[in-house]
């Protein structure tokens, strides 16, 4: 009988692959080999990662296209008024051109003061911190100085699980076949699960939480459950597990059966016999 961690590793080995990324806004980060460009593309993609995935991909693609091949250079060399003009008329669900341009000007301000988003984060963080919350608070304050980013940025000091910003940190801190990394001064052991409805169901299924709502405390409890199994990298399994429920051919009920009985879902067992590369 497989242990929970062996089951998690089985899912990870077979689904933590680039071919399962599309459609996911993480896909955009692969276009930026320079870390200072990647972190800007990443924060933009993460902040807009809500709603239907098709619309997310279209919207993020449109914004990043306007920013050119080097978002860092664009923001570093562009006056605030020009940034406003560049994105005049932008609208995506609850986000307006005011929200987007103020997010971008916040990024620009952080770059001018700290040199990068990573350095801003590190200014509020410590290697002895159990989680990324202190550094994240510093980054949030830097990006939202004018208080005009709307709901594009969630305040980590409040009760929100801040799923999108934790997703951004996973992309930038971890490095494997899926997550491109780049923030080498931040330890993966400090990361918090990007808690969405899929991971909430999985965390409840695994017995990591009994909370009735997917809030910050729930995210911390689920992270603690994973940390007990893998203290150095508690967010390692996030991408592979959340393919179930997101991708149409991967059913959450099959995953539940796998963890309850050890019976391998068809997709996993097929891959284990070499049916997929």
Attribute tags:
single chain; 277 residues; mainly alpha; two-stranded antiparallel sheet; 14 helices; 1% strand; globular
Would you kindly provide a written description of the structure presented here, covering whatever features stand out?
This protein has 277 residues and is mainly alpha-helical. It has one domain (4-272). It is 53% helix and 1% strand. The protein has 14 helices and 2 strands, in the order H-H-H-H-H-E-E-H-H-H-H-H-H-H-H-H. The protein has helices at residues 4-15, 35-47, 53-67, 71-77, 80-86, 97-114, 117-124, 133-143, 163-173, 197-205, 216-229, 238-242, 252-261, 266-272; strands at 91-92, 95-96. The protein has a two-stranded antiparallel ribbon with strand order 1-2. Strand 1 (91-92) and strand 2 form a beta hairpin. The protein is globular. The protein starts with a helix and ends in a 5-residue tail after the last helix.
Distance between the termini: 26 Å
Beta content comes to under 5%
- How much helix is in the residues? 40-55%
Strand line-up of the largest beta sheet:
1-2
What is the H/E string? HHHHHEEHHHHHHHHH
Return the domain count.
Answer: 1
Note the total helix count.
14
Structural class: mainly alpha
Question: Over the alpha carbons, how many angstroms does the gyration radius reach?
Answer: 19 Å
Tally the beta strands.
Answer: 2
Contiguous uncertain segments of 5+ residues: 272-277
- Biggest β-sheet description: 2 strands, antiparallel
Quick check: average pLDDT? Answer: 93
Mass-distribution shape: globular
């Amino acid at each position: 009988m497989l242990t929970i961690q062996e089951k998690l590793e089985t899912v990870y080995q077979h689904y933590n692959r680039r071919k399962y990324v599309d459609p996911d806004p993480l896909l955009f980060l692969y276009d930026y080999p320079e870390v200072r460009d990647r972190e800007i593309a990443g924060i933009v993609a993460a902040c807009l990662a809500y709603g239907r995935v098709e619309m997310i991909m279209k919207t993020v693609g449109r914004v990043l296209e306007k920013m050119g091949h080097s978002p860092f250079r664009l923001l570093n060399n562009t006056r605030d008024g020009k940034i406003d003009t560049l994105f005049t008329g932008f609208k995506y669900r609850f986000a307006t051109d005011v929200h987007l341009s103020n997010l971008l000007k916040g990024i620009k301000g952080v770059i001018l003061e700290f040199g990068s988003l990573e350095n801003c984060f590190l200014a509020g963080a410590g290697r002895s911190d159990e989680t990324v919350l202190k550094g994240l608070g510093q980054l949030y304050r830097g990006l939202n100085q004018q208080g005009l980013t709307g709901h594009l940025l969630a305040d980590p000091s409040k009760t929100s699980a801040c799923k999108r910003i934790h997703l951004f940190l996973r992309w930038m801190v971890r490095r494997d076949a899926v997550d491109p990394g780049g923030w080498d001064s931040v330890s993966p052991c400090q990361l918090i699960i990007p808690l969405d409805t899929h991971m909430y169901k999985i965390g409840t299924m695994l017995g990591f939480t009994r909370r009735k709502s997917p809030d910050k405390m729930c995210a911390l409890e689920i992270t603690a459950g994973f940390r007990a199994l893998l203290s150095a990298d508690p967010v390692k399994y996030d991408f592979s597990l959340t393919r179930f429920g997101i991708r149409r051919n991967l059913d959450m009920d099959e995953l539940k059966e796998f963890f309850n009985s050890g019976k391998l879902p068809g997709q996993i067992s097929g891959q284990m016999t070499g049916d997929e590369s």
